[in-house]
What does this fold into?
Amino acid sequence: MNLSVTFPILRGSIRHLMTRSSQTCRCRATWNRNYSFYRDEVKSPRAVVNPDISKIRNIGIMAHIDAGKTTTTERMLYYSGYTRALGDVDDGDTVTDYMAQERERGITIQSAAVTFDWKEHRINLIDTPGHVDFTLEVERALRVLDGAVAVFDASAGVEAQTMTVWRQAEKHKIPCVCFLNKMDKPAASLSYSLESIKTKLKANPVLLQMPIGSGKSFSGLVDLITRQKMTWQGSSLTYDGRAFETAILQPSDDPDVLEAVSEARTTLIEQVADLDDGFAELLLGQYSENFDAVPAGKLQEAVRRVTLARKGVPVLCGSSLKNKGVQPLLDAITAYLPAPNERNHDLVRWYKDDLCALAFKVVHDKQRGPLVFVRIYSGSMKAQSAVHNINRNGTERMSRLLLPFADQHIEIPSLSAGNIALTVGLKQTVTGDTIVSSKASAAAAVRRAEKEAESKSSSHRESSSLALAGVEVPEPVFFCSIEPPTLAKQADLEHALNCLQREDPSLKVRTDPDSGQTILCGMGELHIEIIHDRIKREYNIETHLGPLQVAYRETILQSASATDMLDRTLGDKRHVVTVELAVHAQMEESSTSCDVTFEEEVKTHLPADVKEAVENGVQSAYLQGPVLGFPVQGVKTVIQHVSLESGTSAAMVSACVSRCMLKALKLAGGQVLEPVMALEVTVGEEYLSTVLADLAQRRGTVCDIQSRQENKVLLATVPLAEMMGYSTALRTLTSGNATFSLELSSYEPMNTQDQNILLNKMAGLA
It folds into this structure.
């Protein structure tokens, strides 16, 4: 294989390139693990191996903000030979953070996919954002991945967003590997990080490595399975970490290290034996005299079984920024995380060798149009072929097939099952759609599913539609108006918003029925700010944003009944409808849905089309509450009577029901519900009282104050309306020495005084 293919990823700064050109490839004499490549040779993504499905790994990098996800990804690409220089988030020259906004802010906004190989394994990796505003990016990436690497700041352990992404991985039953990054920080603590994984994530950490040294003296690792010591030598300015020394631990080594490794390995063996019955039997049978004599290969196999069964999570450590510990992490990805054929996808088996894929992301390219990311579950995908979209019930032609490498895409003729691809030409497909080879293929899969359902004498709901589960989109919590500079630009703005909505399903756009303004609804201040910036840069439209507003909800305080009659003549047709209904407040505190039911007598006499019209009328009334016109939740509607004359249209029935609903909701007494956020502030003890005093003014409720090394972690719930501009306020209060994260907790009723203040504000009286 010719590895000298020139690939235009000149990511590094001039300083990077000059530094590297003066280096020579060094490796210690003990044992070279063959991680080095010649300096001038950079692999092309065209050269990525295309192995058997068992050698493919689809993984995601997930973590809290600033834990080191992008830096870790950058090192992986460098050590596998796909980049010429080590990129740096602070310099804005990393491969996966390629958007202008990402490079300016030093954060990941969009998940980026890269494909590379490592020791005959093909790794499809997705680097995800850590900010809560972009949690959908993590959700849709995890939906199509087989394994994940959770990155932790070793000085902070489990943080707020770590718990959110961990819950998302748990929901999709994804096996994980933990990487304790930043072991070179003075406050880094292995024991604290492991304890926080146990207590906060309720996970079972299986420690596979022991660090050598701590803080600035962190120089390497000891692999507890093989007892090999790996040390990275050299200063951080000139040393890129490619070459490192590996040697078996000797009795002459540091006695403290030997003792710590011996204890940790014994704990590892006992822990794995508790979690894996096969390994326990092996220990008691062949190695009962000396557990420590168990072969490394057997122990590694047992750790893999424990990881795949999600009974435990392997824990590794290192420092990505200082180029230490990333190669063993790559080894762990190939050794412990599952191949696509080891994951159980029920629906896929009905398609056998036919194509079945899930579209999980759309990006817009100015030259190529919409590019759709797909995960291929079965069969293979070929360029210049027609595919059938089950969700849209339509056939589209795929003009080209690309291999993703961040913003550089390599054209390929075909791709097999288990991989992630990028397609050109699918103009109707959106996030969450299922793609198959043809309508006939989908019908054949349905027949197979129904045949098995009959043989098992059970009703399989999945047999009616063999579409893969899509992606859950969270509800937006912020909204604001957006206006073009001139009316001539209105059409361009609508086109831009349509493209951005297709890319980002968590962005909602609606038109205000009263003012006619376009309203942007998003996940947070940063989310809306980024959308505004993208419209300006990518579509050259200077838009004006109105003030940010909070997405309230409404409910009712008591039950009420109402009757309404509609009698209208349109043309030569007379439409007459009479509706009687009752609304009730749902007692469950956590209820966020609204239901509609019919009394038995009404249910039996109403035709299906009239029943559907009544339900549509109720649902449209739920969208606009009686107090401020916000959507209603926690309400149950009972239809008691419906009568209509022949020839009455369904639209008139819906209109009458909506009007009657509004009357009933007003009689029931409205209550505004405000979004309450779970807030986590990490702050030094000297500023704690200042932050607490500020929270009290913001109607915050303190839930807990925890210690994290030398800092305090403040957990509280605060109304979202009080958190506008909190980032700036917190920086001012603490002289920039605090960080915080926000996440939607629940919708809570406002007290009468706060509700009256809000009503006056909305009416322009305050």
Notes: The longest helix spans residues 255-275. The two ends are 72 Å apart (CA to CA). Confidence is low (pLDDT under 50) at residues 1-39, 458-464.
